[in-house]
Amino acid sequence: MPEKTDYRMTAEEFRRHGKAMVDWIADYYARIESFPVLSQAKPGQIRAALPKSAPEHGETFDSMMKDVESVILPGVTHWQSPNFFAYFPSNTSYPSILGELLSAGLDVQGMLWATSPACTELETHVLDWLVESLALPEKFKSSSAGGGVIQDTASSSSLCALLAARERATAYASNENGCDGRLVAYTSSQAHSSIEKAAMVAGIGRANLRLVPVDEKFAMRPEALAAAIQQDIAAGRVPFFVCATLGTTSSNGMDPLPAIGAICREQSIWLHVDGAMSGTAALCPEFCWIQDGLEFADSYTFNPHKWMFTNFDCNCFYVADRKALIHTLSILPEYLRNQATESGAVIDYRDWHIQLGRRFRALKLWFVIRHYGLEGLRFHIRRHIELAQKFASWVSEDSDFELAAPAPLNLVCFRHRGGDGINETIMSRLNKSGDLYLTHTKLRDRMTLRMCIGQTNTELRHVEQAWKRIREEANAAKKLSQSAR
Amino acid sequence: MPEKTDYRMTAEEFRRHGKAMVDWIADYYARIESFPVLSQAKPGQIRAALPKSAPEHGETFDSMMKDVESVILPGVTHWQSPNFFAYFPSNTSYPSILGELLSAGLDVQGMLWATSPACTELETHVLDWLVESLALPEKFKSSSAGGGVIQDTASSSSLCALLAARERATAYASNENGCDGRLVAYTSSQAHSSIEKAAMVAGIGRANLRLVPVDEKFAMRPEALAAAIQQDIAAGRVPFFVCATLGTTSSNGMDPLPAIGAICREQSIWLHVDGAMSGTAALCPEFCWIQDGLEFADSYTFNPHKWMFTNFDCNCFYVADRKALIHTLSILPEYLRNQATESGAVIDYRDWHIQLGRRFRALKLWFVIRHYGLEGLRFHIRRHIELAQKFASWVSEDSDFELAAPAPLNLVCFRHRGGDGINETIMSRLNKSGDLYLTHTKLRDRMTLRMCIGQTNTELRHVEQAWKRIREEANAAKKLSQSAR
Q1: For position A1, what pLDDT does the model report?
Q2: Which of B77, B88, B339 to mutate to test binding with chain A, by most A CBs within 10 Å of its CB?
Q3: Rounded mean pLDDT of B18-42?
Q4: What single DSSP character describes residue A84?
C-alpha cells in the first residue's frame, strides 16, 4: 500500500500496530487464566460503554486497543482458556492464528478455481491428506468420484448433504419444482439440532424428520430405524436421508454405522455421518473404531475447528459422489463463466456449498498440520482423552457422583447423586466463580453435567483443579440445602 | 500459552513468526503490483508441488513460509491489487486485517450471547451505527422491532430472508410440514444467481421463481412484476417474496423500490433488497437516492467486505421484524439452554442465520469504521466513483468503444464496437498479460466488459494505465483480425 495517504493506515503504522497486536495476543494467552472463563458481563453492559454513533473522524489505533482492554475483554468468554470445559471445544493454536492472519492479508476470493487457483488446490490437497491421515474411505478422495471441501460449520455441510440427498431422491426435481412433501429423513433423538434446522431450511419440514430412539449408550437403535423406514414406505412416503452421529453433542454417543449403513444401502437412502468433534480422534489408530462402517456413508463431516487446533471456522465436508453435490448446488451466471471452468479440469468450490464467496481457509489447516505433524496432533488428542478418562475414574470412585453415560473419548457426562437441584447449583456456582466453565445437558430427563476436555492448553493441573472445585461446590451446595431445611 | 511444551508453538516463536508475518504482509502490499493480477497457474500446478501425504513430523515455520512464496503465491489471484477491476471488489485494509487477527487470537464462539457477550453486543451496536450512517430506515435498528446481524455472504442472508418470508406466508407451517408447492417468488432477470440458489435450497424450486423483465437501464419493470403476481394469484398460487436489487452484478442496475415496494405492501409480500456492493455508497448523502423506497423493505443486505475495506467475510443483514426471522430459524436444544437466553434480555445470534457457530466479525468492522471515521470512508467511496465516472467519460469519447449501460456508481459496462469476438480477445489478452484483471457479462446478449473500481489502493494512475492497456489490446486485436482476413 502507498505510504501516508488520506485516511489510510500506512504500511509503517500497520507494521507497528501489527507487531503490537502479535505481542498483545501472546500476552493474552500468558494471562488468560486470570480472567473469569465465563464472562460475568450483564446484558447491555458492553453497549452502554460504546458511543451512540459511529465516529465522524478517524481515531487512533491505540484508542481502539484501549477499548479492547476495558470494554471488550470483560465481555469475552474465554474459549481458549485451559479451564474451558463447556460445550465442545473450539480450539486454536498459534500456527492457526498465523494462517488466519496470512489469509486476511492476501484476502482472496476462492469462489472459482480461476479467482485463486491456490485457494482451491491447497484445499483439495489438504482434504485429501486428511482422508489418508484419518483412515477415511478412499471414495472421499478427489482422485476418486468424491472429494472434500472446507465449509464454515457442520450445520452448513449437513444441510448440503441433506439437499444433495433430496435431489438424488427426486431426480433433481425438487430444485426445479420445490419439495413435494413425501420425503422423510431420519436421525437419532440425540442428534445435533442442526439436522432439524436443515430439514426446516430445505423445505422438508421437521414433522418429516423422524427422531429415532437410542439405546442405553445413547446410540441410535438400528432396528428402530428400520421399523420407522418400513412404516413410512408403507404409508407411501419416501425415505431419503439418514444422519448418523459419531459422538453426539449431549453425551458423545456413537451411532452403529455398520447396521445403519446396511439399512441405508438396502433402501438406497443417503447416509450422512456427523463426526463434528469426535472425528478428529481417528488420527490415532486406536480410536479409528469410531469410523467402523463409514464405508457406507455418502457424506461425512467433522470440524478441525473443534478439536484440531485450527481456529473457527474450519469444517471439513466429504462426499462420495461429488457430481451429486455439484448438480444440486450449481448455478452458472454469465458473469462467472471462465475458461478454466468450461474446461472441466478444475474444481469450482462455490458449487460445493450455499455461499458464493469463500476465504482461503486451507492455509491455517495446512499450517497446523505441518507445524504439529501427524505425530504432534496425535500426541495432543491422546493427552486429552487420557485426561478425560482420568477425570471419569475420579467421578466413578467418588460415592457422591456418578457417570451418566459412557465416556468413549474426551467428554465425561456425570452428575451429583443429590438430584437435579444440586447439580444446577454446582454448575451455576462454578461458572459464576469464573474458575472454570462447564455446561449441562439432560440425559433420561435428568440434569447432567458435561466436562469436555479439548482445549489446546489444558494440562493435568487444570483438570485436577476442576475436579477439586466441583467437589468443593458440591459440598457447599449440600451444606446450603441442609441448612435450608 | 505455556513455554516450550511438546509440539506446541511457544509464545516466543509465535511472537517471532507473527511479527515476521506482519512484515511479510506489508511487503506483499509493497510489491503487489509486480505480480500478474490474475494467477497464470495451470490446473494442477499447485498440487503438483505439494507432498502426497501429510507430514508425520512437524516442520519449521520458515519452511512453510518458503512454500507460501514459491508454491502458493504463483497460484494467487491478487484481489487486493490496485489493478483488480473484475467482478465486484472484495477489498480490505490494514485496520481490517488487524481486527481479523485479534478475532483469531481471541477465537471465541458467539453463537449465544452468553458464550461471549461482547461478540453479540458489539455486533448489534456497530450494525445500529450503520443504520444511522447509511441513512437506512429506523425500523432496521435493534431499538425498534428489527435489527442487524453479520452473516458470511449476501447469498446466505438472502436465503434467510426468503426463509422468513416463506414462514410468514405459511404461518410457520413450512418449517413444520415442508413446502407445499404453491409459493412463488420474484426477482429481476438481472438479479444475482444466489436468489435462484436460495429458491432451490429452500424447497421452493426455481420454476417458482419468476425472473421479471427489466427496462433499458436493466432495472426491474414494476408493471411486469405486478402482472406476474396477478397471473399467479389467478392461478391459485401464493406470491410470498420479492427480491429487488440495488446495483445488479452484471451492470449495476437499480430496481425502482418505491413502485416495487407499493406492490409488495398491497399484496403483503416480503420485500428483500440486495445492495451487496452498491449499498456502501449510501454513506455519502449524494448517493442516498439509491435507497429511495427502502422503507418498504422487510429485509436488506449489503457487504462491507465488498466495498467498505473490511475483509471477507462480513455481510450485514437487516430485518424489520426480528421475531419473524428468529421464529423461522430458532432451535433450542437442552445443551444450549442458559439463564441469559431464558431471561429474554439478550440476542442469541445463532437464531439469525443457518449456522450455529460464529466468529467475532464485528471487531474488524469496528476497527475499520473507527480508523477511517465516516469522513474517511466517504472520501474513498467518492474517489472510486469519481474514477469510474472518469473512465466512463473516456469510453464514451472514444469512437471505437461504447458504454453498454448507465454507470450510476463505480461499475462501468462497456464494449468495443467491433463485436463479441474482439471484446473476448481484448479481455483474454489483458488478463493473460497480468497487468490488470477485468471480467465480462452479457447485456442484451452481447459480450460486455465490466470495469469495477473499488479496490482500497486503486489510484488515478491505475485507471489511466488500464484504459491505455485496453486501447492497446483493442488495436492489437483489430490488427490481428485484419491480417487474418
Answers
A1: 41
A2: B77
A3: 98
A4: B
Average pLDDT of every residue of chain A: 96
Touching A: B residues 201-230, CB under 8 Å: 201-208
Q: Provide the pLDDT for residue B351.
A: 95
Mutate to test the interface with A, among B5, B6, B7 (most CBs of A within 10 A): B7
> Is cis: bond before B313, omega within 30 of 0?
yes
Query: Using one digit for the tens of pLDDT, what is the confidence trace for B109-118?
Result: 999 999 999 9
How far apart CA A33 and CA A83 sit, in angstroms, is 7
DSSP 8-state assignment for residue B69: I
User: Using CB atoms, which residue from A13, A118, A201 is nearest to B76?
Assistant: A118
Q: Is B11 on the interface with A (CB under 8 A)?
A: yes
- Given its phi and psi angles, is residue B235 left (phi above 0), alpha (psi -120 to 50 degrees) or beta? alpha
Rounded-to-integer distance, Cα B154 and Cα A441, Å: 34
In chain A, what are the domains?
11-90 (1.20.1340.10), 108-360 (3.40.640.10), 367-483 (3.90.1150.10)
pLDDT at A2: 43
Q: How many CB pairs under 8 A join A and B?
A: 533
Q: What is the pLDDT of residue B485?
A: 62
B214-246 per-position pLDDT tens digit: 999 999 999 999 999 999 999 999 999 999 999
What is the reported pLDDT for A303? 98
d(CA B378, CA B149): 23
For A445, counting Cβ atoms within 10 Å of its Cβ (0-12 exposed, 13-18 middle, 19+ buried), the class is exposed
Instruction: Report the C-alpha gap between A466 and B21 in whole angstroms.
Output: 37
B329-339: string of b/e by CB count within 10 Å (b at 16+)? bbbebbbbebe
Nearest 5°: the CA angle B161, B362, B168 is 15
Please count the residues of chain A.
Answer: 485
Q: What does the pLDDT read at residue A331?
A: 86
Tens of pLDDT, residues A93-125: 999 999 999 999 999 999 999 999 999 999 999
Of the candidates B47, B95, B335, which has its C-beta nearest A249's C-beta?
Answer: B335
CA–CA dist A429, A437 (Å, integer): 10
Q: Which of A24, A38, A107, A461 best probes binding to B when mutated, by most B CB atoms within 10 angstroms?
A: A107
Please identify among residues 393-452 of chain B the ones whose CB lies closer than 8 Å to any CB of chain A.
Answer: 428, 439-442, 450
H/E element, B315: strand B315-319
Backbone Cα Rg of chain A:
24
Please name which of B180, B227, B183 lies closest in space to residue B206, comparing C-alpha atoms: B183
List the single residue in B24, B30, B43 with the smallest CB-CB distance to A346: B43
Contact between A374 and B54 under an 8 Å Cβ cutoff? The reply is: yes
Q: What is the helix (H) or strand (E) element at residue B349, kind and residue range?
A: none
Collect all residues of chain B within an 8 Å Cβ-Cβ radius of residue A114: 38-39, 77
Q: Which residue in A71, A72, A305, A462 has the most chain B C-beta atoms within 10 A of its own C-beta, making it the best mutation to test that interface? A: A72
Closest CA to B458 of B426, B431, B436, B434: B436
Helix/strand/coil for B319 = strand
DSSP E strands, B349-443 = 401-403, 411-416, 439-443
Q: What is the pLDDT of residues B362-379, one digit of tens each?
A: 999 999 999 999 999 999
* Cα dihedral A416→A418→A423→A429 (10° resolution): -100
Chain A residues close to B188, C-beta within 8 Å? none
Distance CA A233, CA A64 (A): 61
**If contacts are CB pairs under 8 Å, which of residues 291-320 in chain B contact chain A?**
305, 311-313
B8 to chain A: which residues are within 8 Å by CB?
93-94, 456-457
Whether residues B54 and A97 touch (CB distance < 8 A) is answered with no
- Interface contact flag, A90 B109, Cβ < 8 Å: yes
